[in-house]
Structure formats: C-alpha cells, structure tokens
Amino acid sequence: MSSLLLEENIEIRAIEKQILGFINRFLRALEMMLNMYSDMLEHHDLNRFF
Question: Domain range spanning residue 25?
C-alpha cells in the first residue's frame, strides 16, 4: 500500500515538474518578447503612437 502511494507521489511530482518547466519557459519567452518590444519602442520612438 505505501509503495503504491509513494509511486503515485513520484508521478505527481514529475507532472508538477513538467508544468513548472512549461510555465518557466512561457514566462521566459514572454520576458524576451517584452524586452524586444521595449527596445523597439526606445530605438524607433514609436511611443508617441501609444
């Protein structure tokens, strides 16, 4: 019984790791996009349109 619970716990932790990894990659991509957008606004002076 306890070995079954341990096995489930390990599976849940693996899934949590995958989800957190996905969120981490998503946030990094978002950060890169925002940085690029910010650079674009700074260098091309597009902020007068917003």
Answer: 2-49
